[in-house]
Amino acid sequence: MSNIERVWIQCVALLCLFDWSAAQISYSVSEEVDKGTFVGNLAKDLNLNVQELESRGLRIVSGQRKRFFEANLKTGILYVKERIDREQICPNTVKCSLNIEAILSHPMLIHRIEIHILDINDNAPSFLESFHIFNISESSSSGERYPLPIANDADTGINSVKSYKLSPNEHFSLDVQSGGEQSVSAELVLQKALDREKQPVMQLTLTAIDGGTPPRSGTLQIIVNVIDVNDNSPTFAKLLYKVRVNENVSLGTTILKLEATDLDAGTHADIAYSFMKRGNVNSADDFSIDSLSGEITVKRKLNHEENAAYEIRVQATDQGSSPRSGYSKVLVEVIDINDNAPEISVTSLMSPVKEDAEIGTVVALVTVIDKDGGNNGLADCKVVGSVPFKLKSNYKNYYTLVVDGPLDRESASQYNVTITATDEGTPPLSSTSVITVHVSDVNDNAPRFSEPVINVYVKENSPEGEVIYTISAFDPDSDENTKMTYSLLDTSVLISSSVNINSDTGDIVSLQSFNYEEIKTFQFKVQATDSGVPPLSSNVTVNVFILDENDNSPGILSPYSEHGPVNTENIPYSAEAGYFVAKIRAVDADSGYNALLSYHISEPKGTNLFRIGTSTGELRTKRRMSDNDLKTHPLVVLVSDNGEPSLSATVSIDVVVVESTGEIQTQFRNVPRKEENFSDLNLYLLIAIASVSVIFLLSLISLIAVKCHRTEDSFRRYSAPMITTHPDGSWSYSKSTQQYDVCFSSDTLKSDVVVYPTPYPTADAELISINGNDTFNRTQTLPNKQKCKSSLAVRGSALHRSIGRCREKGLCSGEQQNIVALLWFCFGLRIYAGDSLCSSHNVSLTEYRHNDSQMGYVSFADVLSPLVMSSLEYRVSTDCLFHIGGI
């Protein structure tokens, strides 16, 4: 890669970071000027401060291999740096220009400068051949024309061939024809009949002159052979043929058939067709002509982008001894076909892009080139797919790829941006290019813990320096942003003396051996901090639970002996079985099963007279005393805990049998007690306790007085509780102003009764009052359909039994149609249930269910039977079903 190309890439890459200016300047300079020749004042034309040019790093960038121009940073002058040869840069073109860019930094600006290269007359016209031969019959008539070869001039415009001049002679004149700015041709015109006998051969000089100052010229020798006999030349049907052909025409396709005639006869009338060379253009390279038929066919693939038109000179020559020729022109126009897809070129890709890049940040430069012309060469470029990028057009076919949305490396670390360019041809052609844009990480995520709280369980007596837990956090960022350090947030003495954490690995290490009896749990916070800039952190709470180990033996509290390790207990000889001897009291500093104690007599001696409660520690006699029993019974009581391994303690007791209870003396053990002085605080506490007690007693007396203060009417209302049954089968119990509706839920699996307190029942119900003699009166009123909205079934063990079983039991005869069951519920609430089981309809429960889905049933087999009171007039069988009703 050359230095110019490196500079171009570096400069264009900087454009992605700054603004893009659309200013344009045009200058003109002649070719072959000396190095250092002034071209233009960039500082003045761009309105720039000359003092800023050097600090802003003014650079001239060109797409050419040579750097033809350079700028003076001190004066802002654009000057020629290398020799400029227009014919080498723009061969065979009328207009020639070079495009360069002036680039400024801080901020970045780019200015497109177009420099027109002016042609100078540094090339003389020339002919491809040094001489040209004409065979002209002496019988040729005056006015006949003979096309002359065209001279070539590498210069253009005014410096190209502008005229021809023929050397003086008496037979021929020169007719110069102008075909445009770049095309001038000449024909030799016969002015006077030739005479072979006088002059068989004529030599003329054709001079081509350009329009430069001073003019330059080139010459061609023309030899005219005067031919006798054949005096008629072939003639074409047209002097000019025009043909239009598509550029994608197949090879061998005939595009034109020439037709020429000759008035002569015989061989003088046989015509052969051929191409004539025209300057440096050889039509035979692209087309072929059949010499006999005159058909012109395509010889080589045509390309409108290389040559949009062809001018072919054709001649028809007869076969006479002195052949004569006729001439014509064929203009072939090549029609452009949309056969070139746009080409996408990506330069200065700025990758990776930071994930916090702002919208509008330039990522790459994109150029689209289409070799077709017209609408076929116009292309539209866009980004395909849902990506946070878009194309921004700056010039025709020049685009910048910019950020169009937020980037998140954690969601997508790279994007494959697909760019499609489509031209406007018919049918349209398109091409695709994929740009891979990498997204670099920014520290925008704090470390994360899997759980907000971590519970750590550590056995007591674990060795110092043991790793009790390893903290691990996760950071979705990458590289340095994911490297974390761990630290303890708590600086208290308890935490700093108990644990420490490895900042790199997150290992929590114990600094001491824990004792469950001293500390059972403690809590601290751990912070994880990443290495990003700025660093981010998060916390997690760590709860440390100390697990108890069986490291404490039971301690004996009682019995207490003042005279030695052996305790003495006396029992009377007349003690019955189960006589209380002593109670062993012990404690264990451990917890849980490690502190669960059991008592055993480990060394019984003599007869098996005593037993001890395994869990209570009470020592009692197993039987009455006998004369054979010892008077003193030494016992050893073993107290063991339930730990693993089990620890124990022992206490020795001598049980002495005495003749009478008078000899049993209670020994009071003096327990040292710290003397306390009766302070003012004790006095205040006693006064407060006495005051609270008095207030409580007064409140209790007031409450009892209010409860007992009732009128005669209220007592009468309470003396006759009422049961309300409704036509829909539900029932309720009323007492005073309280009413309880009993409803059953259809989806319950237990035989529960739900009691709802409601206002005092209205008169639109059936009231059943229970007298003191366990009899009731029944009053029918208008039905109230608002009592129960739906009926439900409470399922019992005899849910599917029918009323027929009750009838078999003899429960459905005469006045036994109504059965009342008394239930005792919470707080002594009495609930009465009544319904006709054996009505005149005489149907079973299953029929009720089928006829009315709103009916509900309950079995008293599991719920009511144990609660039926014996004072009821009618007893209830456990197999009988009772219809309670629905809600």
In short:
With 887 residues, the chain is mostly beta strands.
Structure description:
It is a single-pass type I membrane protein. Residues 21-127, 128-236, 237-344, 345-449, 450-556, 571-668 form the Cadherin domain. With 887 residues, the protein is mainly beta. The chain contains 9 helices and 59 strands. The protein is rod-shaped. The model is unreliable at 11-23, 666-678 and 711-887 (pLDDT under 50).
Any descriptors?
mainly beta, four-stranded mixed sheet, Immunoglobulin-like, about 10% helix, rod-shaped, about 900 residues, six-stranded antiparallel sheet, 6 domains, single chain, Cadherin_N, disordered C terminus
Residues in helix, %: under 10%
* Class derived from helix and strand content: mainly beta
What fold name goes in the CATH topology slot of the largest domain?
Immunoglobulin-like
What is the assigned CATH homologous superfamily of the largest domain?
Cadherins
CATH class of the largest domain, named Mainly Beta
Give me the number of helical elements: 9
- How many separate domains? 6
Query: How would you describe the shape?
Result: rod-shaped
CATH architecture of the largest domain: Sandwich
Distance between the termini: 96 Å
Low-confidence stretches: 11-23, 666-678, 711-887
Strand order of the largest sheet: 53-52-51-50-54-55
Mean pLDDT: 74
Please report the total strand number as a whole number.
59
Rg calc: 62 Å
Please give the largest β-sheet: 6 strands, antiparallel
**Strand residue percentage:** 35-45%
